[in-house]
Design goal:
By secondary structure, the protein is α+β, with helices and mostly antiparallel strands. It has four helices and ten strands; from the N terminus they run H-E-H-E-E-E-E-E-E-E-E-H-E-H.
Amino acid sequence: MSAHTIYDNAPIGSLVAWSDGTPRPPERFTRKLSAWQTHNSRGRLIQKQGERGIGSVGLSASFTLHEADYGAGGVIAIRVHRTFSIDSKLHFTILERPAIGAVRIFDRAGPGAELVHLAAHRQAAEEWLSRHGYPRAVLEEVTADEVGADIVEGRIVA
């Protein structure tokens, strides 16, 4: 799939893989493997942004994937996000869509909201929120209607 297709069809919370089509180098080539992983990995779709302008410069629509967290002892020190323009030449695949009944937790309401957690159900979402500091958090449940619309519109095969 193209980046544009991911932007148009993948629901927030989906697990998305990207690839440049090159074969994975052997483990012993650590530098080549590290470079390859930059263009071949996966992450959770956490945000979509429409076209916007900064001064006289126009930026095309984009989406952001949460690739990884690094830290120790339950403390996240580094969070890795990758933002892709819809003009990206990489190949994308939706590996997993959020399940019916899952609850998305956004950091705030509105079009610039970012997914901060995907919980299995509402009780798990409320428990997660009680342990993390998002005072303006918004909960959104994945409904059967949303999944059904994806099937009817041909975005997934039933």
